């Protein structure tokens, strides 16, 4: 009987261990401690095809291709970045514009992200993006709200959510001047012990285990336009994030987004797409080189959706497309020196030098009078005006300025034979990452998001909402002589004047307030 019990214990242990350890192709075992999830926002497969031709050699992504991802959201076939990213971050499909939050039919409940679940397992965690860091995709991994546009709420959650590394753009939205709630979050970032850097030089010099870097007031420039003395590249930010996070012996989770591929595709701007697909692939190579050397790291890459309906070949440009040489497509692209995003910096006040600028920076010497007039009369950004002119000459087609609903490629590198493959749901990507890291997303949700009023009142406490500062509300819980204060969107609990940093946030979704179980346990 004793032998049977011992055998049962051993089998149970082996089954648990198997959830995070797999047999590799050569028969050895490798425990997965780290995952780097790289997301090229809005990147259709044709964008990587064009980038490969432009580069003249294989992309770093190429060796990792394993399947296709279905990108639809809870309400239709074409997703916005917020629900698309939520599916990748949480394993749940949700409603339009919702960030790591379930649909209204499920009370807009916040659900744990891969990053938060990894943090609960004592792993180091971080995000990198070329957009403002509170933009939809990075927000999906670090915050919870049914409106991706509420930057004040999202950025505040990011500051207080216990991340180890945050790198990207958006400093304006953390400054007191850029916020509607009057908070100085940059000062708070420093108070929380982060090394706050704003230049590539400072980024490189930092030796801190807690790093926050914002290199522009809003989004970073496209890589073709980037001043390397002022803004770090996506590859440089990825390299530094890995350097910092890999110090943690428990492992790490890192999300990296090439944000502005999507933005360029919205403008049908092939220059911006090329710029940032190539920059993204450089970041993939950084991650892949680390993973191959490290032996305990899985790399996953998938986009949230396609954008623009880009194609190699455009209607009406070349009837003999079968015989069109590669130069037909590449020569117009190789002449590009900048993206159309910064063309306004080269035009004089009356735009009388349009022809000269287009010839010098884009290699276009055959502008029509109608094209010159279109550039002169354009208001706002010029990408959506000039981008199609370049695409026409390069025989690049576009079907829309919006998102598209086609399947997108899935890329995975693993030191083991366990790889997600075939045609999968976007939610399956999150579930795969959770499995290889030994995370339980539902368990993390239960630990981090408890309905506050019901939980505290079940303990005989009184729950009140302090709106004396309407932009910075506080939940007040009273039981006997104990008073617990929980500022909304922060991880702070103040019990009888003593400040406690919790493992999760107090979240108000417009309907209900959620708190970590840790907060509930403070009331006896």
Keywords:
524 residues; alpha/beta; Alkaline Phosphatase, subunit A; Diphtheria Toxin Repressor, domain 2; Copper Amine Oxidase, Chain A, domain 1; 3 domains; 20% strand
The CATH topology of the largest domain is what? Alkaline Phosphatase, subunit A
What CATH architecture label of the largest domain applies? 3-Layer(aba) Sandwich
Counted up, domains total: 3
CATH class of the largest domain: Alpha Beta
Mean pLDDT: 93
Biggest sheet character: 10 strands, mixed
CATH superfamily placement of the largest domain: Alkaline Phosphatase, subunit A
**Class computed from helices, strands and strand pairing:** alpha/beta
Low-confidence stretches: 1-27
Give a count of the beta strands, DSSP E runs of length 2 or more: 24
The portion of residues assigned to helices is 25-40%
Spatially, the strands of the biggest sheet line up as: 7-8-6-5-9-3-10-15-4-16
Number of helices: 19
- Shape, principal axes of CA atoms: globular
Strand residues, percent: 15-25%
Rg, Å, rounded: 25 Å
Task: Describe this protein's structure.
The protein is an alpha/beta fold and 524 residues long. It has three domains: 22-310 and 401-447, Alkaline Phosphatase, subunit A, CATH 3.40.720.10; 318-397, Diphtheria Toxin Repressor, domain 2, CATH 1.10.60; 449-521, Copper Amine Oxidase, Chain A, domain 1. 36% of the residues lie in helices and 20% in strands. The protein is built from 19 helices and 24 strands. A ten-stranded mixed sheet has the order 7-8-6-5-9-3-10-15-4-16, with helices on both faces. The longest helix has 25 residues, at 270-294. Mean pLDDT is 93; it is low at 1-27.
């Amino acid at each position: 009987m004793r032998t049977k019990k011992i055998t049962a214990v051993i089998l149970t242990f082996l089954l648990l261990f198997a959830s995070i350890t797999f047999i590799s192709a050569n028969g050895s075992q490798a425990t997965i401690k780290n995952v780097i999830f790289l997301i090229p926002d809005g990147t259709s497969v044709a964008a990587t095809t064009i980038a490969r031709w432009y580069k003249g050699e294989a992309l770093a992504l190429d060796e990792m291709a394993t399947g296709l991802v279905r990108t639809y959201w809870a309400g239709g076939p074409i997703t916005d970045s917020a629900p698309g990213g939520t599916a990748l971050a949480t394993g749940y499909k949700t409603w339009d514009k919702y960030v790591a939050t379930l649909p209204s039919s499920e009370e807009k409940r916040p659900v744990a992200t891969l990053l938060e679940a990894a943090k609960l397992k004592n792993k180091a965690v971080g995000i990198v993006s070329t957009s403002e860091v509170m933009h939809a995709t990075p927000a999906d991994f670090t915050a919870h709200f049914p409106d991706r546009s509420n930057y004040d709420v999202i950025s505040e959650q990011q500051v207080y959510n216990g991340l180890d590394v945050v790198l990207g753009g958006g400093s304006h939205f953390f400054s007191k001047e850029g916020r509607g709630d009057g908070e100085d979050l940059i000062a708070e970032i420093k108070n929380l012990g982060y090394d706050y850097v704003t230049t590539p030089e400072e980024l490189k010099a930092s030796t801190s285990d807690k790093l926050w870097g914002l290199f522009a007031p809003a989004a970073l420039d496209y890589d073709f336009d980037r001043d390397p003395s002022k803004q770090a590249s996506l590859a440089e930010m990825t390299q530094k994030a890995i350097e910092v996070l890999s110090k943690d012996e428990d492992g790490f989770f890192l999300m990296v987004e090439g944000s502005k591929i999507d933005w360029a595709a919205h403008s049908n701007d092939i220059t911006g797409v090329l710029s940032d697909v190539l920059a993204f692939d450089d970041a993939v190579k950084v991650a892949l080189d680390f993973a191959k050397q490290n032996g305990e790291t899985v790399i996953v890459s998938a986009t949230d959706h396609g954008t623009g309906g880009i194609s190699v070949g455009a209607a009406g440009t070349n009837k003999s497309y079968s015989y069109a040489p590669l130069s037909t497509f590449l020569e117009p692209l190789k002449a590009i020196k900048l993206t159309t995003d910064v063309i306004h910096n080269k035009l004089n006040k009356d735009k009388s030098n349009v022809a000269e600028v287009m010839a010098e920076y884009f290699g276009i010497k055959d502008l029509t009078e109608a094209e010159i007039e279109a550039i002169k009369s354009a208001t706002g950004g010029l990408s959506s005006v000039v981008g199609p002119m370049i695409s026409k000459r390069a025989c690049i087609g576009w079907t829309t300025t919006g998102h598209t609903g086609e399947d997108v490629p899935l890329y995975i590198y693993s030191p083991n034979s366990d790889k997600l493959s075939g045609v999968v749901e976007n939610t399956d990507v999150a579930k795969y990452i959770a499995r290889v890291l030994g995370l339980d997303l539902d368990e993390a949700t239960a630990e981090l998001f408890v309905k506050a009023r019901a939980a505290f009142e079940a303990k005989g406490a009184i729950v009140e909402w302090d709106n004396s500062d309407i932009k910075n509300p506080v939940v007040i819980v009273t039981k006997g002589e104990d008073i617990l204060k929980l500022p909304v969107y922060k991880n702070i609990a103040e019990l009888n004047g003593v400040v406690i940093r919790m493992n999760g946030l107090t979240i108000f979704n417009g309907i209900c307030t959620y708190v970590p179980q840790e907060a509930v346990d403070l009331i006896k």
